[in-house]
Amino acid sequence: WNIDRESPLWRLFAGVVDPYIGEQITFTLSLVRRLKRESFDILHISDCQVASLLARLTRGQRTRMRIVFSNGGPYPPEAYRRFDFIQQVNPVEMDRAVAHGVDPARMMLVPYGVDIDRYRPWRGTGLRADLGIPQNVFLLLTVGSHGRHKRLDFLIETIAGGSADLYLLIVGQPSSQDPS
User: Fold this and answer.
1) Tens place of pLDDT for every residue, the chain, 180 residues?
2) How far is Cα 59 from Cα 35, in angstroms, rounded to an integer?
3) Please, are residues 133 and 166 in contact by the beta-carbon 8 Å criterion?
4) Which residues, other chains included, contact 73 with Cβ-Cβ below 8 Å and sequence gap of 6+?
5) What CA–CA distances, in Å, run from 112 to 48, 53, 71, 88, 106?
């Protein structure tokens, strides 16, 4: 349970609580209640705010669960070094964490994405021809949920101010959180 970031309730706290942070806080408080009712050994989580609040709220408990943080943000090492274990999702962030003193034994590299050894880019011309995209332009593809929370508006605005030799193709579905 949580109070969704789109809830009109957050207008009452305008300027005091960011609706996204409020959503994370109410979700975390609800989660803590469940964690107290049930026994979990490991919690794998990818939201740094939720993980940080959980670490504070569960500190000192006799049967404390371990927090495995997935650093998909990516967040700087200062934000996650207190968690029990860190899943890095790219080698650059893994190297950055080690350079900042995070013990490599507390991390594992498990990347997001596509196995490029198994799946190769399609070199055909059908898609571009079907969509009327010239062969000589750079095609940027984004796949996934494209709700407001993914900030595609920022990507579109950035691209619109750039090169005419770049096309953006958005494939996926609207988020269930966004009105149709």
Assistant:
1) 889 888 988 888 887 888 888 999 999 999 988 888 887 889 999 999 899 999 888 877 666 789 999 998 889 999 999 899 999 998 999 999 999 999 999 999 988 776 656 655 556 657 788 788 888 888 888 877 776 667 778 788 878 877 668 888 888 776 555 444
2) 13
3) no
4) 48, 79
5) 17, 25, 11, 9, 19
pTM: 0.62
- Cα–Cα distance for residue pair 41/180, rounded to 1 Å: 39
Residue 144: which region, alpha, beta or left (left: phi > 0; alpha: psi -120 to 50)? Answer: left
Measure the CA–CA gap between 52 and 74, rounded to whole angstroms: 15
Q: Which two tokens stand for residue 51?
A: 């993980």
Rounded to the nearest 10°, the torsion over CA 95, 96, 98, 104 is -60
